[in-house]
Write a structure and sequence with these properties.
- About 20% of the residues lie in helices and about 15% in strands.
- The chain is of the alpha/beta class.
- An eight-stranded mixed sheet has the order 1-2-3-4-6-8-10-11, with no helix packed on it. The protein has a three-stranded parallel sheet with strand order 5-7-9, with no helix packed on it.
- Helix 1 links the parallel strand 10 and strand 11.
């Protein structure tokens, strides 16, 4: 699994026939990229998209421009969509400017743009999240990109605190959303099924078979969580209790949170995690029982779920949404990096 900072939902690929490209005496190339859109590529590598409406869709091998020459992209106000694969493989692209008028980003529009460092967006974080196909799977190809918002206001009124930046990142990457009343509720507890949903979101909501849920209390679980649970079961992240229940609405404990996160990483790295299974020095280590011991040891060794200032871990303590956001950021940072 490789995580990215921008995400796009898969869609059907439509290939448009290339239109002729014109080049002026001063080296500026230009052409048409939508019914009412034109593009120009300057001699310095700035590609400008102008006009109104949607961009054409492309295949990964038939763009309208010289991909290798593009160093920056400026999409002007009036453009409403960026076509599938439009800038796929622009390996020299370092910055992207996007307008408030943008409503959709197509599949793989910025795939494999590995040199990109900055995106400049003319709206707010909430407006960015409203762009169609902006999901949480992060499998687009932009790695380590910083998004700069013209309107830097927070999307929630109640996230001032040590967890602020973690919540923003999780919100941007589709891991955690707010409540219908516009708040985030950072101090609210997280249930077992909510944590599984966050893991599922972080992994891009992979396709799952529509099998029946295997727990005796499955009838009590809201349908919005069914795919996340199916995914968790299929990947051995969820095992349930010995009595056959899942207990979806129980508040998740820190030990359970460590265990779910550990099983996800174990599904990725396997035996490579073994070297991190070192006995913890928590003052309450004896309270970490049975199947929770290895996950707590590994997660604490990796710095993903750490202890409290008094030296305890608090395996039976509940977790808040603000705490969960911080843990998810640490998981994502670990997955982005290498297993040292």
């Amino acid at each position: 699994m490789r995580k990215r900072t921008i995400s796009l939902v898969l869609a059907l690929l439509m290939v448009f026939t290339l239109l002729p490209v014109a080049a002026s005496a001063d080296g500026v190339a230009s052409g048409k990229c939508g019914d009412n859109l034109t593009w120009t590529l300057s001699s310095t590598g700035e590609l400008t998209i102008s006009g109104t409406g949607d961009m054409y869709k492309y295949s990964t091998t038939t763009p309208a421009w010289n991909k290798g020459a593009i160093k920056s992209i400026v999409v002007k106000s009036g453009v409403t969509s960026i076509g599938d694969n439009a800038f796929y493989g622009c390996s020299a692209l370092t910055s992207i400017t996007l307008p408030l008028s943008l409503k959709k980003i197509g599949t793989n529009a910025f795939g494999e743009c590995t040199a990109t460092e900055n995106i400049y967006y003319e709206g707010s974080i909430k407006q960015w999240k409203n762009i169609e196909t902006y999901a949480g799977d992060l499998n687009d190809g932009l790695v380590g990109v910083v998004i700069h918002f013209a309107d830097p206001s927070d999307p929630f009124p109640d996230i001032q605190g040590w967890f602020h930046d973690s919540i923003l990142r999780c919100y941007l990457e589709g891991v955690i959303n707010g409540y219908p009343d516009g708040t985030f509720g950072p101090d609210n507890n997280v249930t077992r099924v909510q944590f599984i949903m966050m893991l599922y979101n972080m992994c891009g909501k992979p396709h799952v078979d529509k099998s029946a849920l295997p727990f005796s209390d499955s009838g009590k679980i809201h349908s919005v969580y069914w795919d996340a649970i199916r995914w968790g079961v299929a990947n051995d992240i969820i095992k349930g209790y010995s009595d056959g229940t899942f207990r979806a609405d129980e508040n998740i404990s820190r030990a359970q949170m460590a265990t779910f996160a550990y099983r996800l990483l174990d599904s990725i790295y396997g035996d490579a995690l073994d070297k991190f299974d070192t006995e913890s020095s928590f003052t309450d280590a004896a309270q970490v029982l049975g199947d929770y011991k290895t996950p707590v040891n590994v997660m604490s060794s990796l710095g993903i779920i750490t202890g409290f200032p008094d030296g305890s871990f608090g395996p039976n303590n509940t977790a808040t949404r603000g705490q969960a956001a911080t843990i998810f950021v640490r998981i994502m940072d670990f997955v982005y990096g290498t297993l040292d």
